[in-house]
Amino acid sequence: MVYRVLADAVVFLHFAFITFVVTGPYLARLWRPVVWLHLPALVWAVGIVAVGYECPLTALENHFRRLADERIYPGGFVDHYIENVIYPQRYTPLVLTLAAMVIAAGYASLVRAAHPAAQR
């Protein structure tokens, strides 16, 4: 029971991480130091998408699932919980592009807010 709860907590943490990657620049408008947490998170997320290495949170979740005698899943977190659940897999390139645009717009907004003279 404890390992299942831990695995589910890792799932929650994983969703929170993905949400933070997308919304980080907007949170940084409210509290600037968030940028220093967001940039490494963004680099990590881009690396996972671009290079395709396994996220340690997925490995940790599967580890806890094994200990709880539950079935583990092949592939990554997004493959299992998001693609074909929240949106069809064929839309993955579009979703990644939209996420990149939201992040870029957030940083553009952050830069404009930090340098009001540049708005003239």
Summarize the structure.
The protein is mainly α. The chain is 73% helix and 0% strand.
Q: Care to describe what's here?
A:
Helix content is 73%, strand content 0%. It is mainly α and 120 residues long. The protein has one domain. Helix 1 (2-30) runs antiparallel to helix 3. The mean pLDDT is 91.
Q: How large is the radius of gyration?
A: 17 Å
Uncertain segments? none
**Global outline:** elongated
DSSP strand count: 0
Class computed from helices, strands and strand pairing = mainly alpha
Tally of DSSP helical segments: 5
What oligomeric assembly is this protein in? single chain
User: Secondary-structure element sequence?
Assistant: HHHHH
> Kindly, what is the distance between the CA atoms of the first and last residues, rounded to a whole number of angstroms?
59 Å
Beta-strand share of residues: under 5%
Major sheet description: none
Helix content: over 70%
Provide mean pLDDT, rounded: 91
The overall number of domains is 1
Blueprint of the fold:
Layout: H1 2-30, H2 34-51, H3 56-67, H4 77-82, H5 92-114
